């Protein structure tokens, strides 16, 4: 859509709302005026004597829509407050015009952030009742009733997790950026999967250095690891002996006496073997993800996954035989070549297996993925909505409850990803990471360390290199960067 900003330069806020209202549209900032009847937005900001006014003039589908919002100038007391207030009225003016043009409110209303649960959680922590917190979602952000219920359930899980944490605890993420082949919707692992696989051994050597550097920092600071999460990529791309070495190194170098949760993503069934599961179980892993994404063979084939629905059933059985007590399974709503019936059938088959956790993702078209490059046809927003409606009802019926959620850019229908769990099986790491409840130390490829100081309202993010080659090239700096954890912790203690 052509965007014209007058009297301000809040491009990011405007684009966020564009994505929310019209997920298929990409922003353009042309010099010339739009053609008559062409889709375009003029978003203006003006200041009078007492008010700042945002006006949206939207042309969509040949029709014109106009909306305004304003705030008092006396509210604009400092640069941060001013930015927030002006962005809010600009977004809401665009939202009002956009909703009139679409004829419906988006599922998450005018909420544009990726973490909707933080809003009710913060409100409750500040003294609001759950009903008051829900009203913030309803009246300030126009969130629809189903999404409000989802957010409130997850807020409760977040508060429960917060109550279970102890001071000085952190979580550990270990990123293994390798997969046997690359899925069509993936932007995580390097496009040349075969070449990357040759780097596994040097990668593990470098990771061993990073583990030792992390061990030193934990010892210095007294921080304790509460939860471990191996993600990627697919960590079980490593052989049984490589996994054994890596997990052994973690146990030797870090004090894991406070660790109550150890998760390994064994996402792709084509990487799961009895030997690897035996290593995971022996090394203390008590949660594994086996991720079908779909149980429909033609959908899996279209995604470039080298397994079929039957392989999932076999892998699931192997995990159950290994004695690892908690299994998560991921599904994606909105995959190309999938249908509402196909998705329902996938979910029914997964529910039949009875995993303790099920994560329902909505397809997000990511830059750098094959799907994005090929502009592939995907199910419509209405079809994805029907898939999610079915999932919600079936999951609740099966006794599962939503416990964490997040949104991403370019999600089909502007929906969300939701982690569901049988009561008592919620994954603490997922909640801590998504809701930023405590510090997450990330090792390996692609993770982001988040240093969290709640008292000071401070979060510092440090990204590890994403791809194996880059990680190897920068390993000296990655290890030296652990010093920041010590500095941050010392500074937080002083305050
Ligand atoms: S399994 Fe996950 S990380 Fe690996 S290629 Fe597929 S989407 Fe990417």
Give a quick precis of the structure:
The chain is α/β, with parallel strands linked by helices and 495 residues long.
DSSP helix fraction: 40-55%
CATH superfamily grouping of the largest domain: tm_1862 like domain
Distance between the termini: 47 Å
The low-pLDDT segments are none
| Ligands and ions found | iron/sulfur cluster
Query: If you average the pLDDT, what whole number results?
Result: 93
How would a crystallographer describe the biggest sheet? 9 strands, mixed
DSSP helical segment count: 18
Count the strands?
Answer: 15
CATH level 3 topology of the largest domain: pyruvate-formate lyase- activating enzyme
Strand order of the largest sheet: 11-12-10-9-8-7-6-5-13
Could you say what the CATH architecture of the largest domain is? Alpha-Beta Horseshoe
User: Tell me, what's the shape?
Assistant: globular
CATH class of the largest domain: Alpha Beta
Percent in strands: 15-25%
| Count of individual domains | 3
By secondary-structure content and strand pairing, the structural class works out as alpha/beta
**Overall radius of gyration:** 24 Å
Features:
single chain; 495 residues; alpha/beta; Double Stranded RNA Binding Domain; pyruvate-formate lyase- activating enzyme; 3 domains; 9-stranded mixed β-sheet; 43% helix; globular; binds iron/sulfur cluster
């Amino acid at each position: 859509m052509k965007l014209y900003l007058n009297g301000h330069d809040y491009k990011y806020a405007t684009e966020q709302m564009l994505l929310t209202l019209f997920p298929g549209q990409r922003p353009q900032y042309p010099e010339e005026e739009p053609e008559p009847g062409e889709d375009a937005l003029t978003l203006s900001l003006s200041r009078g004597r007492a008010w700042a006014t945002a006006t949206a003039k939207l042309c969509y589908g040949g029709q014109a829509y106009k909306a305004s919002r304003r705030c008092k100038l006396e509210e604009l007391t400092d640069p941060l407050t001013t930015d927030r207030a002006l962005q809010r009225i600009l977004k809401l003016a665009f939202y009002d015009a956009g909703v009139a043009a679409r004829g419906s409110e988006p599922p998450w209303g005018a909420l544009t952030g990726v973490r909707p649960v933080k809003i009710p959680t913060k409100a409750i922590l500040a003294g609001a009742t759950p009903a008051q917190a829900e009203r913030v979602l309803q009246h300030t952000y126009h969130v629809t009733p189903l999404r409000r219920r989802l957010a409130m359930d997850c807020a409760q899980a977040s508060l429960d997790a917060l109550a279970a944490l102890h001071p000085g605890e952190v979580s550990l993420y270990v990123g293994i950026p390798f997969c046997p082949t690359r899925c069509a919707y993936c932007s995580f692992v390097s496009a040349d999967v075969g070449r990357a696989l040759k780097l596994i051994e040097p990668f593990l050597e470098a990771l061993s250095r990073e583990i030792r550097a992390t061990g030193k920092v934990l010892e210095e600071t007294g921080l304790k690891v509460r939860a471990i999460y191996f993600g990627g990529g697919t960590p079980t791309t490593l052989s049984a002996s490589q996994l054994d070495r890596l997990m052994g190194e973690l146990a030797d170098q870090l004090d894991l006496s406070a660790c109550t949760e150890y998760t390994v993503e064994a996402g792709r069934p084509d990487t799961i073997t009895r030997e690897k599961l035996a290593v995971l179980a022996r090394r203390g892993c008590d949660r594994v993800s086996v991720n079908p994404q779909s149980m429909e063979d033609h959908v899996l084939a279209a995604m470039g996954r080298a397994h079929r629905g039957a392989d999932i059933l076999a892998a699931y059985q192997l995990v159950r035989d290994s004695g690892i007590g908690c299994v998560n399974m991921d599904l994606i709503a909105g995959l190309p070549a999938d249908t509402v019936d196909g998705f329902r059938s996938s979910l029914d088959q997964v529910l039949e297996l009875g995993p303790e956790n099920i994560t329902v993702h909505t397809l997000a078209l990511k830059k750098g993925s094959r799907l994005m490059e090929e502009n592939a046809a995907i199910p419509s927003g209405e079809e994805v909505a029907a898939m999610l409606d079915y999932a919600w009802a079936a999951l609740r019926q099966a006794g599962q409850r939503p416990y964490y959620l997040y949104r991403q850019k370019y999600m089909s229908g502007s929906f969300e990803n939701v982690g569901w769990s049988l009561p008592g099986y919620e994954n603490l790491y997922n909640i801590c990471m998504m809701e930023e409840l405590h510090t997450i130390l990330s090792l390996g490829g692609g993770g982001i360390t988040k240093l969290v100081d709640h008292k000071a309202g401070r979060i510092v993010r440090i990204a590890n290199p994403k791809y194996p080659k880059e990680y190897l090239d920068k390993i000296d700096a990655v290890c030296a960067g652990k010093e920041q954890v010590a500095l941050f912790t010392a500074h937080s203690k002083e305050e």
